[in-house]
């Protein structure tokens, strides 16, 4: 039936069901028994956090943090909530999500629809004992000028600091006008300094600030990537999330390929591997790299881990793969690591 629904409406129905399940520890345990898979060899300890496996859920699926426990019960080691904006905003007009089944891909032109930081704070306050790391993906409101964007990122960080385990500055969505301009050196340095200063102020006395990461675009040229990474090294970042959706349509076959927005899914894997490999060569060795884009099975995840990712995230693969997706990937990673 979901295949006959508008893609965004189908997503809302599934997320609504998972949100209801999240209120029931009994139902969450039943989900975990049916679908999740854990193994000691999968555990990753980075950012001062313990991840049950390398595989987490990318930002964008649970934008407002309504279903974290159920998503963890499905086998994801961490959930990245958002993108969260300071004030509520509806995002772009519908339709804005399109399936590309011939390519195992999606196109979205969402434009950061968000319930706003205050509502997300109330949601995340319920899940403080969810038992898995929660990342917060942070963005700016549509009407905020790009030269004042840092204020929006700092505001979300301030509101949600007690409830996130790490924070990701999303400067890479193609669906918010001028957002990718934040890759420019001056703006990126300003953003990094402002967020780092706020994180230090929010940290309890004697405690290290919570980790801050950058989410970069996959559409950067090699020269642009070099410049962005050079600027990023001037900030107090703990790592990178690589990458996001792409505006490229190269190689797509599906009739929906010209829909507006950014492409995610299987076509992204080769580019994500390339990005991770390039970044790992030049970033500080202690920086954590999340590889996100194109994971549909354990072999895809393994490619990103071998390229230098510490952790990986999926979204479109989960949409196509269903509730057993994370468990299948984790089982496959154990088999792959034993070879």
Mean pLDDT: 93
The CATH topology corresponds to: TIM Barrel
Cα separation of the termini:
39 Å
- Counted beta strands: 13
Describe the main β-sheet briefly: 8 strands, parallel
Explain what you see:
Helices cover 37% and strands 16% of the residues. The protein is of the alpha/beta class and 339 residues long. It has a single domain, classed as TIM Barrel. An 8-stranded parallel sheet has the order 3-13-12-10-9-8-7-4. Strands 5-6-11 form a 3-stranded antiparallel sheet, with no helix packed on it. Strand 12, helix 9 (298-307) and strand 13 form a beta-alpha-beta unit. The chain is globular.
Summarize the structure.
The chain is of the alpha/beta class and 339 residues long.
Q: Helix and strand layout, with pairings?
A:
Blueprint: H1 7-22, H2 25-35, E1 44-46, E2 49-51, E3 55-57, H3 68-73, E4 79-84, E5 97-100, E6 105-108, H4 117-125, E7 134-138, H5 149-160, E8 166-170, H6 185-202, E9 212-216, H7 222-232, E10 239-242, E11 262-265, H8 269-282, E12 288-292, H9 298-307, E13 311-314, H10 316-321, H11 325-338
Parallel strand pairs: 3-13, 4-7, 7-8, 8-9, 9-10, 10-12, 12-13
Antiparallel strand pairs: 1-2, 5-6, 6-11
Helix pairs in contact: 4-5, 5-6, 6-7, 8-9, 9-11
